[in-house]
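hi! just following up on the protien thing from before. the input was this:
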Amino acid sequence: MTGFRRKQILIGCIAVVCALAVGLLASDLFHALDNTILTLMNRMRGESMVDSSIAVVYFNNNDIESLGGYPLKRSYYALVVKALKDLEVGAIGIDVGFSQTDERYPEYDNLLRTVMDGCIGVVLGGYFRKIDEIAETENTDSTLDESLFYGIGNDHWLRGSETHFPFLQLRVKANSIGHTNFSDNISMPVFVKYRNGWMPSFAFWGYVASCSDS
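and the predicted 3d structure came back as:
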């Protein structure tokens, strides 16, 4: 290898190292600049009022342990729904997978169904194991047809497959159901194509409820 060739390789290596260093510094610089702009915008906007019309009931790990461990008995969900129902809330959204009946405590399934029966605005969440532009068309769940919208979208929307939604006997007691899937860009599609219709998102029903109250 000639001296000129070695000099070219050395210059190339130095250029690569410099480019990487500049890239890292620029990344940190833009990140700091973005945080600064966001902070200034928040200060200019001032404090925003918290929407007191929405309440989130959340069970953390300590709560679950104190109530007997995971999965929680569905009698607890029934108690929460009953309490919210007595408070005359406008809507109740339950983002918990009830895809199978509880073989250990079928009486708790019955209790939850009974409490939900006639309760206005109960929305249950479920999900598709996969959403993409080309989804499987075999082994679809026809019992979801009554929960779908029709004639509102096109074939370019994301499609769902491998459903995990609440079991039918519980689902029919709910006012509606919605998917909780996120797309690759971390956004929740308003609708996902399934069979011959479109499954609305869980958040969509929250929006509908807020509009009906306004």
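The beta strands are 92-94, 122-132, 159-164, 176-179, 191-194, 197-200.
The first strand starts at residue 92 and ends at 94.
cheers
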